[in-house]
């Protein structure tokens, strides 16, 4: 376990986090932006304030874009599954019921 940032245990299997994988965690970014924005409240040059603001807005837009994209993908997948189900039902309705291969007769069967 040496050289690991964190180690998670799940169903008896070891799942180790790779170095810097915490960068993709939402909790990390919430904490990081709280710290960065509080640092921005201290007297810093206007250039650094502008960089902090641009980075924050860029990250907010990136996060919102990712959420909207995920929602659109889920909606498209649900729509495709619904269309597939409707097509399946339409085909089942058109097809006559499957028989065991013997011809059917409308009257009594007589042997000649």
Structural features, described:
The protein is built from two helices and two strands; from the N terminus they run ββαα. Strand 1 and strand 2 form a beta hairpin. Helix 1 packs antiparallel against helix 2. With 112 residues, it is mainly alpha-helical. The N and C termini lie far apart (85 Å).
Supply database-style keywords:
about 110 residues; mainly alpha; two-stranded antiparallel sheet; about 10% strand
Strand fraction equals 5-15%
Portion in helices: 55-70%
For the residues shown, what is the average pLDDT?
A: 79
**Shape call:** rod-shaped
Integer count of domains: 2
Sheet with the most strands: spatial strand order: 1-2
N-to-C series of helices and strands:
EEHH
List how many beta strands DSSP finds.
Answer: 2
Distance between the termini: 85 Å
Provide the gyration radius in Å: 31 Å
Tally the helices.
2
Write a brief caption for the model:
The protein has 112 residues and is mainly alpha-helical. Helix content is 58%, strand content 9%. Strand 1 and strand 2 (13-17) form a beta hairpin.
Topology:
Layout: E1 6-10, E2 13-17, H1 26-41, H2 46-94
Antiparallel strand pairs: 1-2
């Amino acid at each position: 376990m040496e050289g690991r940032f964190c180690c998670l245990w799940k169903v008896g299997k070891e799942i180790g986090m790779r170095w810097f994988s915490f960068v993709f965690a939402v909790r990390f970014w919430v904490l990081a932006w709280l710290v960065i924005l509080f640092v921005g409240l201290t007297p810093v040059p206007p250039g650094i304030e502008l960089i902090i603001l641009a980075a924050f807005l860029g990250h907010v837009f990136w996060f919102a874009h990712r959420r909207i994209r995920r929602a659109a993908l889920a909606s498209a997948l649900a729509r495709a599954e619904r269309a597939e189900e409707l097509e399946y039902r339409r085909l089942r309705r058109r097809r006559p019921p499957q028989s065991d291969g013997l011809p059917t007769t409308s009257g009594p069967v007589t042997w000649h």
